[in-house]
Design brief:
By secondary structure, the chain is an alpha+beta fold. About 45% of the residues lie in helices and about 15% in strands.
């Protein structure tokens, strides 16, 4: 399990020289943020069942995270899941099974908590893969649970998402650049969530 300091730390190491995290080039596409859809938890449950069917016991933990996991929160219509496996670097133990289930590897960055990201086009989903000690797994659940319980921060985040989506689309930016536009508000919300959890004074 990561330490409290590791959980609250947002430092990300740069990619090693000559290496890119992107297995598939980033796409420039309109960023669409839509009203919350009651179907999202149902889709997430179906996707979790699909991943568990593919991996069996190798799926140590699966969580619906991100904005589609927060009732009432507008979001991009893309389901985000966090998958914990024993060792992300041993791709032969889990990746081929997910590829046969329809997922495509798009990001590989072993230098950052072993992270991989796979996507699915129908329904649209991002499957983030980490090892058991990754602090990102804790961050994502803390953020999700805080937004589920705090109406003010939920509204604040919704406004930030709408503004970032408009600006990113007008500028012809990628989703990563859209995410960067929200970063300041996200950090503020994380600070309150971490303090409420006892991770910060």
């Amino acid at each position: 399990m990561p330490t409290p300091q590791e959980i609250v730390d947002f430092t990300e190491p740069p990619a090693p020289d000559g290496r890119s995290p992107f297995v598939r080039p980033q796409r420039v596409e309109s960023v669409e943020v839509v009203a919350y859809d009651e179907a999202w938890p149902v889709l997430a449950a179906e996707l979790i069942a699909r991943v568990r069917s593919a991996l069996g016991a190798r799926a140590i933990q699966l969580d619906h995270v991100g904005s589609t996991s927060v009732p009432g929160l507008p979001a991009k219509p893309v389901i985000d899941l966090d998958l914990t496996v024993a060792d992300p670097d041993r791709e032969e133990a889990w990746l081929p099974r997910l590829e046969r289930a329809g997922f495509e590897l798009t990001v590989r960055e072993p230098w950052w908590h072993g992270h991989r990201c796979l996507v699915l086009d129908a329904p649209r989903a991002n499957l983030h893969v980490f090892g058991p000690s990754s602090p990102e797994l804790f961050k994502h659940r803390i953020f999700r649970d805080w937004l589920r319980s705090d109406a003010d921060d939920r509204a604040r985040y919704a406004a930030a998402k709408a503004g970032a989506a408009r600006a990113a689309t007008e500028a012809g930016e990628t989703v990563m650049q859209y995410n960067a536009r929200k970063a300041e508000v996200i950090q503020e919300i994380y600070g309150r969530a971490f303090r409420a959890a006892g991770l910060l004074d």
